[in-house]
Amino acid sequence: RKTGHTIVRVLGVTKSFRMGKVEVRALKGVDLEIFAGEYISIMGPSGSGKSTLFNMIGGLDKPSDGKVFIDEVDISQLDAYELAWLRNRKIGYIFQTFNLIPVMTALENVTLPMTFAGMNSEVAADKGIELLKLVGLGERFQHKPLELSGGQQQRVAVARSLANDPAIILADEPTGNLDLKTGEEIIDLLKTLSHDRGVTVISATHDYKMLNVSDRVVWIRDGRVDKVEHRAELDITVGGIGMESQEARPVG
Ligand code: ADP
Ligand code: MG
Known about the structure:
The chain is an alpha/beta fold. It has helices at residues 50-57, 80-90, 106-116, 121-134, 150-161, 180-197, 231-241, 243-248; strands at residues 6-19, 22-35, 39-43, 65-70, 73-74, 91-95, 168-172, 200-205, 216-221, 224-230. The chain has one domain: P-loop containing nucleotide triphosphate hydrolases (Rossmann fold), CATH 3.40.50.300. The longest helix has 18 residues, at 180-197. Mean pLDDT is 91; it is low at 235-252. Magnesium ion binds next to helix 1.
């Protein structure tokens, strides 16, 4: 697939967490370049540093060393206002646990980032309903999260991630709390978004089903990039290992 300019550049990123006397080195010098419109899966065992990398790219936490550039802007140099803008407008986030606001309806969850961005509430409501239709929840916009299934809640989260037409969607284990079939539906949805809208999708995942839709897979092991595979190479790898054995393999 044709992809665009460098949208994310990760340069020598390390991240350590100090817990009392113990220092955990979650990332040990990660370099990564991601192009606009790509569908990237970040794969690796539990504790390998996927979520930490996700947080660095998304400006949710700061590297101990190294830099993250979004559209060639060093995000460590952004002031609080610019960072809030990046997190509200440029990037949409999807989490394993959906992270919806339970007292709000599906529609209110989706329109919240729009009103936060200054959009008129009626315009936001119209756009929110459009987005909920896009994810197949047009009928359920007045339901609250706990009145929806897990898959439906994640669809609301996908709609919310699109609220302000982000260039990047960051998803951390988006299928991690879903059964196989529902997870596949979410993967299909993300694939469609990436292909139809040109959104860059970066997904940290355990889910080998993600391999089928990824342009590249970044394998993380013990805080480092182990290897980066293109989809073309993957066909061979996946065929060689066999999907059944991959699903059965304990990956954390
Ligand atoms: P993954 O998402 O691949 O499962 P993480 O990025 O969550 O891995 O974690 C990588 C390592 O960093 C693990 O050893 C984890 O325990 C540690 N870690 C992650 N976040 C924190 C934190 N906030 N405080 C301390 N240690 C952390
Ligand atoms: Mg994680």
